[in-house]
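In this supplementary section we document a worked example of the pipeline. Step one takes a protein sequence of length 218 as its only input; no multiple sequence alignment statistics are reported here. Step two produces a three-dimensional model, which step three serialises into structure tokens for compact storage. The input and output of this example are shown verbatim.
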Amino acid sequence: MVPATVTQRKRLAFLALLAGAGSRGIARERLLLLFWPESSAGRARNALYQVLYAMRQALGDQSLVGGDELRLEPSVVLSDVAEFQEAIARGRLDTAVELYRGPFLDAFHLPGTPELERWLEQKRQELCRAHQTALTHLIADAMRRRDFETAVRYAERLVATDELSDRMMVTLMEALVASGDVTAALSRARVHATTVRRELGANVGPSVTQLVARLVAG
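The serialised model returned by step three reads:
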């Protein structure tokens, strides 16, 4: 739960940025550029001091550590982003995918901070790719173990991250076929084709059409 005093948009973005930076932290000078790009150096540093003061008042004096490089103290401030990244680094992929709750700060916008917007989008894509890669490995592992129910469940979550991806749809279809549900695989292919046509004005790629043809023929 984020304390009420931290919910102001800039302070919330500040907290999320530090959480996303993890144990590496982020340089004070970088923070000034991200949050106050149009301010003078003096005004930007004063604004940063005020945000840091508010954060420590809300989360505790030991919540932020570091000198030139600021970071959250993990023993004081828990972050699902940090936990997700640690789980990925330690190979605990099942834990990681359970921690992932959707795009990082989805639809968050802070006017007048173009560098921050770019950083957030890069972090959003980085975390999403890590989530997709983790799911792909879990699906492959479940398929090897012939645990097709688990493979389908993870494949459904993979497709949900990018409903226009032919590659991800093929992964789901193959898991459904392995589970014995060819009808569901063909049904999902039809829905996918409709979605791609509606959103992109194009037909699905050959990987989907060829798999459909093999299933129909088989």
